[in-house]
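Holo model, iron/sulfur cluster. Inputs:
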Amino acid sequence: MRQQLLAWWEPYGRHAIPWKQGAAGGRPLPGEELDPYPIWIAEVMLQQTQLAVVLPYWQRWLAALPSLDALAAAPEHDLFLLWQGLGYYARARRLKQGASQLLAARWPGDRQSADRQSGVRKPMGIEGAGGDGLPGDPWPRTVEGWMELPGIGRTTAGSILSSAYDQPAAILDGNVKRVLARLIACPEPPARQTAAFWQLSEQLLDRQRPRCFNQALMDLGALVCTPRQPACGGCPWQGCCAAYAAGEPAHYPVKEAPKPVPFQVIGVGVVLNGAGQVLIDQRLDEGLLGGLWEFPGGKQEPGEAIEATVARELREELAIDVAVGEELISLDHAYSHKKLRFVVHLCQWRSGEPQPLASQQVRWVHPSELSAYPFPAANGRIIAALLQHLGLADPQADPSAVA
Ligand code: SF4
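Output:
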C-alpha cells in the first residue's frame, strides 16, 4: 500500500507547496532538514482552513514576520490584521504565545535581557519547548515537545516533524481520517474510534520516507478521496478499499446525528456623531473573537423590537443614548456552534461619553480609517455597506468581497 500510494503521488501529488521546498528550491532530499518556522505557521493556519485560502495569508505573514523573534515582538493588533478573514483568531494569539515560549526556552530566565543586549547568542543546553531540542535550537524534536506549545495537537505536531525533519511521526487530520474511514469502511464516526485510527495511521506510515508518505496521504484525501465525490477510478488504493468494495464510498465516514444549532438575532448599532465619526469597540480578550474590534450590539430579547434592542445594548454596554435610524444591512453568519443574524441600524449619537463597560476600549474613528482595525468577517460586510451608504466606497470594489 505504501508503494502504491507513493507511486501515485510522484506524478499527481502537490509538490509545489512553498513551505515544503528544500534548500535547492525543489523537493527536499530524503532526511534534509527544513526551517520549522514557516511550516509551523502554515500548519496552524491549515488547522481550520484550506490550502488555497491559506497561501496568500501565509505569504503576507512571512513577509511581515519572517522569524520567531519578529513574531514574539509583534503587537497583537498587527497579528490580527494579518489574520483578518482566516477566522478562529485565537490561533494568531497562540502563535505569538508559542514564539515567546520557544524563545524563553532558548534564552532562559534572567540571562535573557543581558544576553540579548550583548548581542551574543549563547546556547543554554537542552532547550526545546519540551526540553527536547538541540543545543541552541529553539525547535522541539518530538511530538510531545511540540504539543507543549499552545494550540498544537498530535496531528499538527506529527505533520511539522515529518515535513521539517522527515521524522516518522503519524498524522490524523480531517483528510486522513476520511481516507482511513473509507479504507476500512468504519461503521462508526471516526471521533469514536480515535485510538484505532491513530494506530492505523502509525501502521501505514512509511518509516523510510515519512515526509513523502504523510504528504501523499494528505494529497490523496484532498485530491482524490474528496468528501462528496471520491474519484475512486484514479485511486491507488481502490483494490484494498472496503468502502469502494461495498459500493458506497461517499457514505463514509459515518457521521454523528447533527445537533440542533441555536439561532440568535443580534441588534447592532453603527453610531455616528456630529463630526462624521463612527463608534467601534474592542472585544474582551476571552472567547472566540477576543481582541478584535466590532460595532457594538447584543442579543435581541424575546418580544423586543430590534430598534429597542440596539438602543438598550448601547445604553447597557457603552452608557450612551442614541436615536436609532434606518436599517443599514442584515446578514446571517454561521459559526460551528451557533447561527447569528445581525440586524444593523444606523444610529445618531445623542448623549453620554462612551464607556467600555463590556469591552476593552471604545473609539470614535473616521469611517475611512476602519481598515486599520482588525474586525471579524461578519463586520467586513457591515463596513462595506456603511462606506457605500456614506459614498466613500471604492466604485471598483465589490462590497460582498470585503467579508
Ligand atoms: S477507493 Fe475511493 S473511497 Fe477508497 S480510498 Fe480510494 S478514493 Fe477513497
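The CA atoms of residues 73 and 96 lie 8 Å apart. Residues 179, 182-183, 224-225, 230, 232, 235, 237-238, 241, 243-244, 249 surround iron/sulfur cluster (CB under 6 Å).
Archived with the compound record.
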